[in-house]
Structure prediction request, 128 residues.
Amino acid sequence: MYLVTAPKLLRSYYPASLIWDIPTSEKIIYLTFDDGPHPTATPFVLETLKQFNAKATFFCIGKNVSNNKKIYQQILADGHAVGNHTSHHLNGWQTSSYVYLKDVSFATTQIHSNLFRPPYGRISKAQI
Prediction:
């Protein structure tokens, strides 16, 4: 589990259009899960969330959606949000922008969402 706050320097480097946090006076916890859907972990997570009447956001990898279509459909049927986590979990710092953006674009054919989380938290300015 990671609890991460983006450093101010990092925030100043990237465009202001990125969402880093959402100020609120309420005490809210957002549950997010990356890299799925996974054939054993995701059903367990879905069942646990259901037991507690909780919702989460699943940042899915396109190839995992292809390999686990029923689980992906269950995520949606249960009312959870989904986000794009690329098709092949590419590291933005180690991948050309052309290849990276093509991979992200392909994932959008399977994952219909305006949410995106870069794998490893690594993305270049040119890839935004």
